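Researcher: Next entry in the queue.
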Amino acid sequence: MLEGIEVLCHSSIRMNRGKVIYIDPYKIQQNYNDADIIFITHNHYDHYSKEDIDKVKKAETIIVATEDLFDRLLKDGFSEDKIKIIVSNNVYKMDDITFEAVPAYNTNKLFHPKKNGWVGYILEIEGIRYYIAGDTDITEENKKVKCNVAFVPVGGTYTMNAKEAAELVNTIKPEIAVPIHYGSVVGTKKDPEKFIKLLSPEIEGVILMK
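Model: Structure for this entry, 210 residues:
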């Protein structure tokens, strides 16, 4: 289920499973310009980075984002027909990929207000459901997520910490859980290790960030 999938840095994920997909490209090391689809969870600099988007996009790239980014995407060089604006709690289909926008927000801090409408995503690819949580705490919405693989933030401060992330994962019970959102802007390498130790025995914790 993780074949062709990398956590590049922080919350930046690359998937090569039929299509090349990036989620929140950040600190990309070189010009790849290979993205078929880019998913953006929200507009903070470590999730929407024009510099890094430019390193992965090509002429045909579709970018998926929330409405508050529409004008910025036009300004940053995307044509309107390459922008797909989404709304949380909705399901979409793009070619052979079905995806759902899941609300992502803080419940005990102010960095990611629910009213902003920011999101995580569930991507269904080849029958496998991948949940990329975005910057979030435990919420009523994400406790209902059904997925095979969960990518969850563990670095704390702006999102769940390792203990909270494990609590969410133990609630939704994916087969595999991958920690993200640590080691750059916030969090250390101890966070994913703590997270994995707190997972239920039937859930495989995998550290993908090198």
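Model: The mean pLDDT is 96.
Researcher: Noted, moving on.
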